[in-house]
Structure formats: structure tokens, C-alpha cells
Amino acid sequence: MAEYRLEDLARISGVSTRNIRAYRERGLLDSPRRVGRAAYYGEQHVAQLAAISQLLAKGFSSAHIADFFAGLRRGQDLADALGIQGSDWRGPGTTLPVDPDDDDVRTLVEFGLARVVDDEVELTEPAVAAIVGTADDARAYVRIVAHIARSTDAAVDQLAASAAAAVAECERFQPRTDLRELAEAVASVGVDRALRHRLSAAE
């Protein structure tokens, strides 16, 4: 079983050593195995850091994530850990009554917004599912989502290229493993601000 020192874990996970220490202090990350004064991390820590990064990117706070993980460590299932009442959360709003071979559905799958399981189309992005899954005309909304995805693809790719170039430039004088996280956060805020401004101007 692979084990890593703190610096190795930071390099593999892309999370800074400072953030790893902070996650441990806040109860997000399991304690490492200690041998004397040395601390060793395993694959479960790599997986936990990946989950933490994904949840933070979706807007959850570190306090929320700590609560989720505490519940999972107590043996709760995910619904209980999230504080969700009820058992059937794979019904309306997740699976769509549309043809999996439809071109728009293929676009959603290509962009990571949906997947096809047993000939059923499932939305994978919660924010999209909350809107499309409850719409009276799901097919029309699938068409809209696909159109937005195609129309913004080139611009999103250009934004990603610019952010990656900025990170590479910064790494030359400030080599840190958390610059990718920083770039994602800054770009996300920038896109949200610009989109709100454009949509407000169009009203």
C-alpha cells in the first residue's frame, strides 16, 4: 500500500501543504499514520482530498464538508450525512424522458452534463438537474442546455487556456501546488460576475 509524506501528498493531489494541514485541523481529512514524529498518508487521503476539492468547487463550505464526512465516518449513508429526508432521490429531476441517441443528448454527455445508463438519460450536474428535471417540457430544456454548451465551448476553452497560461507564468516566481485551485476560484467568480452583468443588460 502506497504511503506519502506531506510534500508528496501535496504534489500528487494538487492541494497545498497549508490547505492539507487546514483540512486536518477542521476535521475534513483523516489523521495520518504516525511513526515517531513522521506522518504518512495513504490512498484514502488522496481520495478525500479529491472529494474535498470537488465539493468546494460546487460551492459547499468547509464546515458543510466536515459535517458530511463526520456523518459518513459514523456509518451514515450519503442521504443521512447530507441531512436529506426520504429515500428516492433518483426519480423526477434526474432521469429524463428523452431519446439517448438524440444529438442534443450526445452533446450533454460529451460536456459531462449527462450520462446514459441502461438506455436512460441521467443528468449529472445538480444545478442543471434542478431546472431541467422539473420542467414541463424536458426535451425543450435539453435542447437549450445543449445549445448553451456548444455556443460557449470555444470561449470556455479560451478562458481555460488563459487561466492555465497565467498559472504557468505565476509558477515561475511563486511555485505552489494550490495555484490551480486559485485559478479555478478566480475564473469561476469572473464568469459568474460577467454572466450576471450580460444577462442584466439584456433584460
Key descriptive features of the protein:
3-stranded antiparallel beta sheet, 203 residues, mainly alpha
Radius of gyration equals: 20 Å
SSE succession: HHEEHHHEHEEHHH
User: How is the biggest beta sheet arranged?
Assistant: 3 strands, antiparallel
Molecular shape: globular
Helix content: 55-70%
Estimate the mean pLDDT confidence.
Answer: 83
Please identify the structural class as seen in this structure.
mainly alpha
Which residues sit in consecutive blocks of at least 5 with pLDDT less than 50?
87-93
The tally of beta strands, per DSSP, is 5
What does this structure look like?
The chain contains nine helices and five strands. By secondary structure, it is mainly alpha-helical. It has a three-stranded antiparallel β-sheet. Strands 1-2 form a two-stranded antiparallel sheet. A hairpin with a 2-residue loop joins strand 1 and strand 2 (38-40). Helix 6 (103-110) runs parallel beside helix 8 (138-173). The relative contact order is 0.09.
